[in-house]
Specification:
The chain is mainly β. The chain is built from no helices and 13 strands. It has strands spanning 2-4, 13-14, 18-19, 24-33, 46-55, 73-75, 83-84, 92-98, 110-117, 123-125, 133-134, 145-152, 165-173. It starts with a strand and ends with a strand. This is VMO1 protein.
C-alpha cells in the first residue's frame, strides 16, 4: 500500500522511486537541513530525507535502538545544502511547507520540515525551519515503511532561487 500527503512545493521533478532491499523495511530516518542563511541570501531549509533499511526481525525492532551505520539507505537525490541529522524510527509523516511567495524579490523555500509518526506513538520532527504551515498527517503504515518518493528542485546556479526538497509524495508500506 501507499501513504501520501498533499501540499508540497511546486518546483522540481519527481525522482525515481527508491525501495529498501527485499525482505527489509525502513527502520530509521534522518534529514539534511540547511540553516537559515540570513537576509538577502538564498535558503533551502529541508534539502534531503534518507531512510535506513534493516532486515525484518519483527515489528518490535522498529522500537529498539540498533546500529544503522552499516545499514543500506535510500534517499531523495543528494543536495549540496545542509547537514544530515541523527537517525530516528517511523510509520507515517506530515510536511511543513512555505507557500509560494511569487514576488519579484521573494525567496522561495517550499518544504521546510517534516514530522514522522513512530510505531510506539512518538512523533519525530526534523530539525527544519519554522517557516510555513503544517499539512495533514498521512495514513499510517500498518507494519513498516520500505520506500520513499520525493520531488527535488535541482541547483539553479549562482544568484538563482533554489528550493531543494519540495515534496515527499509517498512513503511505501510493506
Amino acid at each position: 500500500s501507499v501513504i501520501a500527503v498533499f501540499g508540497g512545493g511546486p518546483w522540481g521533478d519527481w525522482a525515481w522511486l527508491e525501495v529498501c532491499p527485499k525482505c527489509s523495511y525502513a527502520s530509521g530516518i534522518n534529514f539534511k537541513v540547511e540553516a537559515p542563511q540570513g537576509v538577502m541570501e538564498d535558503d533551502t531549509a529541508l534539502s534531503g530525507i534518507r531512510l535506513c533499511c534493516s532486515r525484518s526481525r519483527g515489528l518490535h525492532s522498529l522500537l529498539l535502538p540498533h546500529p544503522l551505520a552499516s545499514a543500506p539507505t535510500i534517499s531523495s537525490p543528494p543536495s549540496r545544502w545542509g547537514r544530515w541529522s541523527e537517525v530516528a524510527h517511523l510509520v507515517g509523516f506530515a510536511l511543513r511547507v512555505k507557500a509560494p511567495q511569487r514576488g519579484l524579490l521573494s525567496n522561495e523555500v517550499a518544504t521546510t520540515s517534516a514530522r514522522f509518526a513512530c510505531s510506539d506513538g512518538h512523533v519525530l520532527e526534523g530539525p527544519g525551519s519554522t517557516w510555513g504551515q503544517w499539512g495533514g498527517w498521512s495514513a499510517r503504515c500498518p507494519r513498516a515503511v520500505c520506500g520513499i518518493e520525493t520531488r527535488q528542485d535541482p541547483a539553479r546556479g549562482l544568484k538563482r532561487d533554489d528550493t531543494a526538497l519540495n515534496d515527499l509524495n509517498e512513503l511505501f508500506c510493506c
